[in-house]
Hints:
The protein has about 230 residues and is of the alpha+beta class. The chain has helices spanning about 10-35, 40-65, 105-110, 135-150, 160-170, 180, 190-230, and strands at about 1-5, 70-75, 75-80, 90-95, 95-105, 115-120, 130-135.
Amino acid sequence: MLLHRCRPTARPVIEIVKYGLAALVVLAAAATIAFSLWDVLGIVEGFVFAAAAAGLLYAGWTKLRYDSTSIEVTDRDITMRSGMLNKSDQLIPLSRVQDTLVKRTMIESWFKVGHLYVSTAGGIGYELEARNLDDADIAKILDVIKYFKEGGPRPAPHQPPEQEAAARRPPEPSPFLPEEAKKPAQPAKEMMEIAEKEKERADVLGEELLKEVHGKEGKAAGRRRKHKKR
């Protein structure tokens, strides 16, 4: 049963390249204004163009490389598939997982990204290295490993984001139910107040019924007395 599927994220690289290009543009504009020389302007423009091209190529290559890598966690093993042209699969049975390690730099902590390392019993070093994963994906994988190692809470099966959002939505009432049943449940305090009001109404109705019964009995007793006198 598939419990989780994820991919490395290129978000930190893309963000760094984006802010780096913005900084280069600002520096180029400042240098042009400061020197006001055409030859300097040409050198600065060439440097900015070369740096922008290199940054965009690196970000694009990183995105393609990460998109070709996937990690699947089932109730039996962890599988990492990687490679754009030459594919490779690495499988780690959950029963053999010995130790886990999570590393992240200060910049990666800002972007909530880390690297997950998994070692197995009898292995040398960390056999599985999953780099640049979102913290949420790392937490999910660690929950699965903890469950199968220590008997923690059972992880929920993997669902696409659309199905997870649909599962969190409250169910819609059936069109065949009466209108009273379609109304949302009332809080406990309001229910208690309604119950007290109903009780007071029942007490009032009971008192009125008792008075009516006593009145009829009194009238019947008066008729009997008059009948005896006659």
